[in-house]
Amino acid sequence: MDGVRLTVEPEGAVVEVPRGTTLFEAARKLGIYITSDCGGHGECGKCFVRLRSQPRAPTDIDCRMLSQDRLDMGTRLSCRYVLEADTVVYIPPGKRRQNRFA
């Protein structure tokens, strides 16, 4: 498998996933369900997280859904952020659903 590692802060949980997996899906493999009304389809803008490692340029959807200040701080929509390299992300407790049915 051509894998990449996702490290989620603050707990330091790590998962290896195939290159090309979205951050949204990789977090789910750790049992972390990021808040989203659209189910990770880039339509609601609620699944934003802050990249601790150097983020790639924002997508057009990131630019439509997030303020420039947030983009400058490394905030991206987790459903649109495709993992191409090892990545560290901060997902605050307020951006997490308690379970996959919430």
The CATH topology assignment is Ubiquitin-like (UB roll)
The CATH class is Alpha Beta
| Tally of alpha and pi helices | 3
The number of domains is 1
Strands ordered across the widest β-sheet: 2-1-6-4-5
Strand content: 25-35%
What percent of the residues sit in helical stretches (DSSP H or I)? 10-25%
Distance between the termini: 32 Å
Shape designation: globular
- Largest sheet features: 5 strands, mixed
Organism: Thiohalorhabdus methylotrophus
Protein name: 2Fe-2S iron-sulfur cluster-binding protein
Domain 2Fe-2S ferredoxin-type: 2-95
InterPro entries: 2Fe-2S_ferredoxin-like_sf, 2Fe-2S_ferredoxin-type, Beta-grasp_dom_sf
Furnish the topology, listing elements before pairings:
Elements: E1 3-9, E2 13-18, H1 23-29, E3 33-34, E4 48-51, H2 60-65, H3 68-72, E5 75-77, E6 87-90, E7 96-97
Parallel strand pairs: 1-6
Antiparallel strand pairs: 1-2, 3-7, 4-5, 4-6
Pfam families: Fer2
Domain 2Fe-2S ferredoxin-type: 2-95
Protein name: 2Fe-2S iron-sulfur cluster-binding protein
